[in-house]
Amino acid sequence: MFPVLQSNLPYLLQGAVYTVILSVIVVSCGTVLGVGVGVLAAVGGNILRSLITAYIFIFRGVPVLVVMFLGFYSFPAVGLRLDAYTAVAVSMIVYVGAFVAEATRGAIAAVAAGQTEAAKSLGMRKGMIMREIVLPQAMRLLIAPVLNIALMAIKQTSYASIVGAWELSFAAREVVERTLAAFQIFLGVMIIYFVICYPLSLAARALEKRLAFDH
Amino acid sequence: MDAFIVFFTRYLPAFADGFLITTWVAALAAPAAMLWALVLIVPRLARWTWATGLVSAYVEIMRNSPLLVQMYLLYFGLPLVGIFWSSIACGVIAIALQHGAFLSEILRSGIQSLSQRQWEAGSAIGMRRSAVIRLVILPQAFIKVLPALGNQLIVLVKDTSLVSAIGVMDLTLTGKMTIERSGASFEAFIAVAAFYLVLTSALGLVLRVIEARAARRYG
Amino acid sequence: MNQAAALPPQSDEIVAIRGLRKSYGKLEVLKGIDISVRRGEVVVVLGPSGSGKSTMLRCVNFLETFEHGTITVDGRPVGYKTVNGTRKQVSETENASLREHVGMVFQSYNLFPHRTVLQNVMMGPVKVKGIATATARDIAMRLLGKVGMDHKADAYPGRLSGGQQQRVAIARALAMEPSVMLFDEVTSALDPELVGEVLKVMRELAEEGMTMIVVTHEMGFARGVADRVVFMDGGVVVEEGPPGDIMAAPKTDRFRGFLSRHLSEEG
Q1: Which residue pairs from C177-180 have beta carbons closer than 8 angstroms and sit at least 24 positions apart in sequence?
Q2: Which of A96, B61, B79, C139 yields a CA-CA distance of 20 to 30 A from C162?
C-alpha cells in the first residue's frame, strides 16, 4: 500500500527533522523575545511603548510569508550572507515575537489592577511590582496562548519551502514533482505534521481548561 | 528618496494589480469559508451523532496540518483525477476548507455558551427545533462570537498570500517578482507590507464598527 | 526648601489636606477639601456615593493625582512639591518611600493570590524594608494572631472568606508599621455576617492608638469608634465634628437627610 510514500518516507522524515528543529528554534527564541518585549512595553516609557506597539501592529498585520521574503532578500542587502533556512528562522523569530508580545501585554493587563495598587500602597516600586506580583501571575496566563502560537508557528514553517528553505514541505513538493503521486505524498505529509502538532494541540486545550479552573 | 519615488511609479501598477488579486481571493474565500462552517455545524445542531464525530476529526486534521500542504494537495492532486481547476480556484477552496473548520469551531463555542434557557424559551412558545436554531440560537451565537470571527477573517486575508506558491499573481508573488526584477528588495517589501497593512487595518476597523453596532443594538 | 524637614517629627498633625481639588477631565470631583488628622485620631468619612470620599482617600497615598492643593503626611509632601515656586511632581522613588508609612486596605482586599497568607503579610517588610526573613516572619505571625488569622498562615487567599481575606489585608498593611492607616470601604463588599469580624479588628486598632482615616457606610462604627466624623457631599466637606455632636444634631439639611436615609436602612 502506498508504495511511493513508503519508498520516500526516509527522505520525508529527514525533512520532518528539519521542520522540528526550525520549529523549536523559532518558538523558543520567539517566546523569549516576545515576553521580553511585552514586559518592556509594560514598564517602559511612552516612546518605547509606541515603538513596541508599532512593531506588534506591523508584524501581526502582514503575512508571515512576506516577512520571510523580507528576511531572505534583505539580509544580503545589509551584508549578511545567510542561507534560506537561517534567514527564515530569524524572520519567523521576529514574527512570533510580535504575537507573543501581544499575548504578554494581554496577560499583564489581565492581572487585576487592584493587585498593583495594593503593591504600590506597600511602598513597592514599578520594577518590584512587575517582578514579584504581576509577572508570576501573567506567566500562568501566558501558557495557553503561547502554546497556540507555537502551533501556528509549526504550521508556518511549511511556508519556508516557498522561500527555498529545505524542510518537510519542500521535500514533499520535490518528491511529488518527481513521482506525481500527489495524493499519497501530501496526505502522508499531512499525517506527519499531524503527529507533530496534535500533542501540542491537546496540551494547549488541556492547560486552558485547567488554568481557567484554578483562577 | 528619489529612488523610492522612481521605484513606486514604475511598479505601482503591478502592485495595484496584485493587491486586487489578493482582495479577490479573499472576497471569494471568506464567504466560502463561512458557508462551509455553517455546513459543518449542522450535525451538532441537528444532533446527528454519527456525523459530529466526523466533523470533529475533520476539524482536528485541519487544525494540525499546514494550509500550504492542503493547497498543494489540491493543486497537484486534482489534475491527476481529471479535475483541471485554475490556481485561484484551488487556492480559494483550500483556504475555505481550512478556515471553515476554524470558523465552525468558533461558532460552536458561541452556540455552547448560550444558556440552556434560550433553547427552552424557544420551544416554550411552540417553535420547532429548526426554527429555534434559525431565529433564536444562531443569531445570538453569531453576535457573541463576532470579535473572534473577525480576527479569524483577518488571518484568512493574510493566508491568501499562500496562493503565490501555486502561481497566482497576488500581492506577495508580485512583490517577489518585483524584487527579482529590480533588485530593490527594501522598497518592494515596504510596498507589499504597506498594502497588506492597509488591507488588514481597514478590515479591522470595519469589523470593530460592526461589533460596536451589534453590541449597541443587541448587547 | 526641603519640606520633609519642615515639621518636627513629634508634630501632632499626621495628615494635612489643604485645598484639595481634583477633576476627571471636565468633571470636578473634589472641590477644595481641607482635612486635618492628628496623631491617634480616628476620622470616619461619610457621604453618598459620588461624593468623592474614596477619591480623597486615594489622593492621600497618591494612588490618584490631583491638580490643586497640598497633602502632607507626617510632614512629608504627597505627590507634588514646590521647587523654586513651581509645582512639580514628586519622583516615583519618593512616592514609594512615602507609601511605606501609609497603610491602605481596599474594598476588594487585593491580596496576592499566588502567595500564602503569611507570605502576603511578610512581603512588605522583606521586599520593601529589607528586613530579614526570620524577623519578618515573627512580625507577620504576631500580626496575623492579632487579627485572628494565624491559624491560616499557610493557606492561599483563594480559600478564605471575604472577612478572612480582609483581616489578612489589614495585617499586611500593619506589617509596614505605618503612621496612618487608610480604610477604603473595607466592609462594603462583604456578606453582612462577615462585617463584624473586620470592624472588631478595626476597633481594636483604634483603641491601640492607630491614626486612621476610614471611609465607610457603617454608621455604628462611626458613632462608636470615630473621634471625628467628616461628612462629604458633592466634592466638599459639608460638616465635621465629633460623632456624638453632629450625628445626634446635624447642622445641615444635607447631613440630616443622609443620616435619616441610612438610619432607616439599618433597621
Answers
A1: C178/C100, C178/C101, C178/C102, C178/C103, C179/C14, C179/C73, C179/C74, C179/C101, C179/C102, C179/C211, C180/C14, C180/C15, C180/C37, C180/C60, C180/C73, C180/C74, C180/C101, C180/C102, C180/C103, C180/C210, C180/C211, C180/C212, C180/C213
A2: C139
